């Protein structure tokens, strides 16, 4: 994977919207009973921090030291607690059980190896407490295909409601290997930032197959954390899994 920490940390919280809606969505799937929650690829705590306010303790696993540093420096939630763990989620072995395990904001696609993706979902399934839920949010490959309009290379601009802020993305789609290389240029008040990420295209059906193999079933799926229906072409999908 690319060094997302160095590339994205300075602009991260301006590129992505606040994490409270995702935190609320996840918190509503926590079974209660005082179980902690586990976020893999927690970044700056955009979601983990508000989630802790809803459900108590959140273990936040993050690879990039720059992201962990920002998370440690962030104001503490008024309730609950976030415990940052600087670790690679592909080798991180949870030693507790969790009411909620989440891997959101297209983080599973940053793991390129299908075997490792499968193993991760199995690890997360084993870490669920009774009644616990696994929440996975990812890019929808069908929407990336649509964005490319049949081309290998495509450039798109995503405006923001804030003045003088927009994201210019140049994508290269490797259909044979199901890889999407996206170079982003983020313009904000005249200060551009640029970063490249490579994602392994991982759609809802594929995650369902990993989950099934791990003894989980998909109990809910939406196009976003507001609960909009997923019909197949929306940019993102959010799936919720529980033990079958
Ligand atoms: C798109 S960001 C999402 C961050 C956070 N989940 C959110 O919603 O704001 C993906 C994060 O996953 C981290 N990451 C990527 N690969 C990782 C790995 N193998 N182990 C742990 N973290 C990883 C990146 O450094 C980055 O902070």
UniProtKB/TrEMBL annotation:
Biological processes per GO annotation: methylation
Can you provide one Gene Ontology molecular function annotated for this UniProt record?
methyltransferase activity
According to its UniProt record, the EC number is 2.1.-.-
* Keywords, in A-Z order: Methyltransferase, Transferase
Stretches that traverse the bilayer:
none
InterPro entries the record matches: Methyltransf_25, SAM-dependent_MTases_sf
Q: Where is the Methyltransferase domain?
A: 38-132
The cross-references to Pfam families, in alphabetical order and at most eight, read: Methyltransf_25 (PF13649)
Superkingdom in the source lineage: Bacteria
This chain belongs to the protein called Class I SAM-dependent methyltransferase
Q: Which organism is it from?
A: Lipingzhangella rawalii
